Structures
1.
Amino acid sequence: MSIRACLCADTISYPEGGGHQWVYLNWALGLRALGCQVIWLELVDPHTPAQEVQTYIAALRSRLRRYGLGEALSLCSETREPLSPEVTAGCVDFELAAEADLLLDLGHKMQPEVVKRFRRSALLDIDPALLQIWVSKGKVCLAPHDVYFSIGETVGQPGAPFPDLGLKWQYTPPCVALDWWPPHAAVGDAPFTTVAHWWSAAWTGEEGDFDDKRSGFLPFLELPRHTRWPLELALDIGSDGEEGAALLERGWHVRDAHAVASTPWDYQRYIQDSRGEFSCVKPACVRLQNAWVSDRTLCYLASAKPAVVQHTGPSRFLPEAAGMFRFRNLQEAARCLEQVAGDYERQCRLARALAEEHFDARKVVGRLLERALG
């Protein structure tokens, strides 16, 4: 008998986030590739107007349908107040969802009494170091789970500059569904690209201590003047024309992320038409040394696109210059881009090989299931 897995996602209120949806799709498709029956669970604020929720449901279901998950959607209240029947009509009954063999919780918002209803529950931390800080400072209240996983290599390890919360954290790499992300040749004189929220800030410690993707890019704004290769940012930058103009003045190409990557398939097309990825990280990842690698970067690697990304700390397996290049400063970033471009075909093969060896959703999810259900 196949395993029934309930995956708790967090996408329903962000229908224009094609890349954000892939964070969860890769895990769901990995589960299904292993023969699991997948239920896609979303938490909903019971005070959100029913018509608004129904609009979100329609948008999400239309996206999930392309991946065979359109009829797998279930809803649960994010508070102790129940959702109205008007909201949950047409979705998988949560009573059925709660009978799953495993809850795979990719968020941190579920009520403890809801988590307890599942036979087995596994929390999957996709904000390594930050989640532990949020919980330790009382910003997040984490429901007890049977097992705890993190995509940060240093979470729960001796010497980590952030708390482990007294929990036993098990490392798992993030994953990418290789069957859905085949190698794809770049288009013409394609740029190195990335997709990001420019202003999206995360609280990283004390009151008033926030950082965002913009802060990560600030030390590298002059990079286009240090390389001959085109660099493009697909950004959710809002209506700040001055910010976009400043990037253009320094030689960056700038696209509207919602125009080029608002659906999972548009996001995929944008990545697969690129030469490779160039991206910086939020400063907290560097400061906290969590050895984090983005789920977005995995999509580039699986597509046989080399990734030039900022160093986030020592890793047991992430390479420094083989399919993935990890830089620490402006000079290293420019040098990495030249190395990739000068050995491009080989680096494309190494990128795909890296995804196959370490991030294949079938392997990653299979190992996680063994530990979560064992």
2.
Amino acid sequence: MRPLDVKTIITRCGAGTKIVFTGDLNQIDTPYLDAKSNGLAYLISRFINEENFCYLNLKDSVRSRLAEQGTRLL
């Protein structure tokens, strides 16, 4: 997801809306984005100090060993 996509979603939310974005900052499938420039990273960097924002960084993967290797190596 691009930063523009995140902006498009959030700026159209009404009162009482709650959004949950999930993702792996290291699993980027487009050559134009990376772990620091994708929409999720953009969202975190802009909202990290806001009162109505929560960010969890999970360290353990529940995916297969092969998926973890693919993330690291490809």
3.
Amino acid sequence: MVKQGTSLQLKQVQRLSPLQIQTIKLIELPRLELEQRIQKEIEENPVLDEVVDDTEQEDGTPKKISLSEYNNDDTPSYKLYVNNQGKDLKPQYNTFQVKESFHQSLENQLGFCRLDERRHQIALFLIGMIGNDGYLRRDTESLVDDISFKTGIETNEDEIEEIIEIIQGFEPAGVGARDLRECLLLQLEPAEEDESEARTDARTILEDYFDEFTKKHYNKIISRMGIDEERLKAAIAEIRRLNPMPGGQIDDSYSDQAQQIVPDFLLEIKDGELVLTLPKYSIPELRINKRYADMLMDSASGKSKGDKEAVSFVKQKLDSAKWFIEAIKQRQNTLQRTMEAILEFQHDYFLDGDETKLKPMVLKNIAEKTGFDISTISRVVNSKYIQTHFGIFPLKYFFSEGLVNSEGEEVSTREIKKILTSSIEEEDKRKPLTDEELVAVLKEKGYNVARRTVAKYREQLSIPIARLRKEL
């Protein structure tokens, strides 16, 4: 039988305070989400107040305003407006109009087709299965099962194909295709009038030599079709005018496709010196409404159980407000110190934006300069942007690994990638540079890089292999 008893044990446990937890959460928020988080806190916490104007005194009580001020017909115009903005006005963006979505457009076109109710429901289901890129990627057999299971309509593969053919006649051309080849062929359907030789050749290439075309085996296509290089060029130009993503022609969302970026930092050059600021924009200044908090405490100062619960509630809200305000201050301080460390590390680069002056830099470098943990630096860098005199950049842009050149100097991998990009842009497109040849180019410039490293950087730059870069 196990003997039971009690004992004391001393254990050291590291716990995060509510303030630390709050600060960590706020640091990783980008500016727009921070604005929403602050507004939510103001709405939920009655003792947290926003400083919007000068109509209140320092203790939170409203200033006394005489009614006679409003009886004067000659009131100056400046008294008729309220300016509750900070010193940094938030940039105004153009409004946008909500467009008809991609799937709504297809459904509207379906309304002009003479289909019975049953086939109309099948067509609606098929339209719903089309992706935003315009492709229908489910095979016919699976679609039959899906329609039967989800709508209760019994159908067959022949009927599905007939309805898909109807949908493929909708705008934009190419919609409802099962793969790229079918999408392009739908856009090259024979015209009623006499069509060009290039269009006919383009259709032949897609129908009979699509594999050779995608692999850019142009010599094989010329030999098998019995055409010259000029005719092949014209046919390829015709294919390149087609849209491989027909769904992208119509906006399928109710928001701007281009992301609006509000920078967290503003960098300017004044008298040859870098000046960093954290613009306020619409982030309000917060304070605890002491007058309202005292009023709540006075009303909850009784000794009944309900009064004690009210006192506990008010104290909880007061603590929460204090922690939140302090967390905002610590967030600003952390962001400021981190960005100042980055500026110091990359000082030469920020003067003129020359990428060749961008030094290799990792999170550990900035953590050592600031004294913060690497995880804190990672949170600061995430989704934060800086506006400079040469553009707006995410903070992640300035971090890169390093390589040692032939002179023993450490250079950023970004510089290597820039050389690769320029070399590929200037290459002979009839005979593109292979990875081995790119290694030789870099070696001539003083960078000893392995072939697999060149391949990795090329893939990171979304540049295809030499064979797929070949042009006539």
4.
Amino acid sequence: MILVLKSDITPVEVKRLEEKLAWMGLHAVPSQEEGRYVLTIVHGTDKQVQAEQFIQLPGVDQVLPLTQKYKLTSSEVKKQRTVIQIGNQSIGADHQVMVMAGPCAVESEEQMDITAKHVASAGATVLRGGAFKPRTSPYDFQGLGEIGLRYMQVVAKKYGLLTISEVMSIDQIDVTASHIDILQIGARNMQNFNLLKAMGETQKPILLKRGLSATYHELLLAAEYILSTGNSQVILCERGIRTFEPYTRNTLDIAAVPVLQSLSHLPVVVDPSHGVGIRQFVPALACASVAAGAHGIIVEVHPNPEQALSDGPQSLTLPQFSDMMVSLQAMAGALNKSIAK
């Protein structure tokens, strides 16, 4: 149920109403929609409580049904798009596109310095890099850990960039959050529910990648775990899914952008690097993602992809990244949008 409260209700009265619902065995999450308080009942709706009982509660103006299992992520609950403030940048506004770029894995401070300097000068605002790497083979490079996070933090500050890096387990949350601006949950961990709940207890923005075979509803329910435990700063990421086509690494689902934006108020970004796995196709898919309405693009860039310790074939060279940014700016301009600076 969604309880739309009266326009003249006070914060104190909202709190009393929450306490009343809790006494009834219901848990409601407050928010504001177009200047009015809204209470979304997220737990306890299996109890036999009728809409007529809610409308009789003090301060309640309307009672609306909630048709989806995902509640806090749903556009039924929040029609205004969520805009997340990250440092001096924001993501989620329909007129702006954020670009995140960097190597798949942090390999050295020099590598990160070269990459950060270039992507910043070309127009990116977020430096990506993996310090803890989930690899298919246990013998592949697993990342530098906290040292890699420190390298990212140093060079990002030097060139005025924000940072994003993946968290693989609960014990990595605190150390990653102490160095990094945006925490990423990778595709393999999209349904690691204990990790999702623990990430929900942080105050950091979280980029949640779609699982390799996950439906839109499964992605939104994964996001619901984070929101329901207290963190509303979630960014959804389409990164390609497994299909019958073996030519590319995955099949990038461009339709996910407008569909997810219709189902949810959360920002949606696209990762064309993992979506296709072949660097020559990444720029075209990045432009297609912007055309589809993505709020951001996250791509892999490496000073020397042929020598990369992870995902070299899909990593753009530095000149390729610069050329792609020119195309993205042109595409954004044609849609009356801009690349975040």
